[in-house]
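Record 1 of the preview.
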Amino acid sequence: MRIGVFVCHCGENIGRTVDCHAVAEACARFPGVAHSEDYKYMCSDPGQNLIKQAIREKSLDAVVVGSCSPHMHEKTFRKACSDAGINPYMVEIANLREHCSWIHDDIKAGTKKSIDLMRFAVEKVKFNVPLSPIRVPVTKRTLVIGVESPEYRQHLMLQMRVMKWFWLRKSLRLVDT
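->
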């Protein structure tokens, strides 16, 4: 497996308390890493283009990005990798901003922890497998457990009028409605 590692400075958000260049250099020595680099704003168009270019030029199979929260940019990086030919589920994000930068004042400590988180993400991506999204039909049924108040039951019945629902009373008797 050929893994590409990309470390984002997130402007000063990460770069203020993490030596991002040192993190990228350390990641280059991890087993399986074929490419490692850092960039000021990896989520920007130029940053995403760096990822796409490295995927094509280095024939990468998987990508690890050290950046801010996956909640914020996971879709961004997965789409960039998908555009370059990598299955989007072969991408891992190490949250360097919230887990390192924002909690450390000492650059050495922040950098050391960032290297550890990147190592974990690199090892994790080695076990990822390409996936495809699936569609699963939803059965509109609801099981309501333990509601004895008639007023509350009436309220629930109004809310759930489009679904098939079942009451499970304290007496453990199933009531079909």
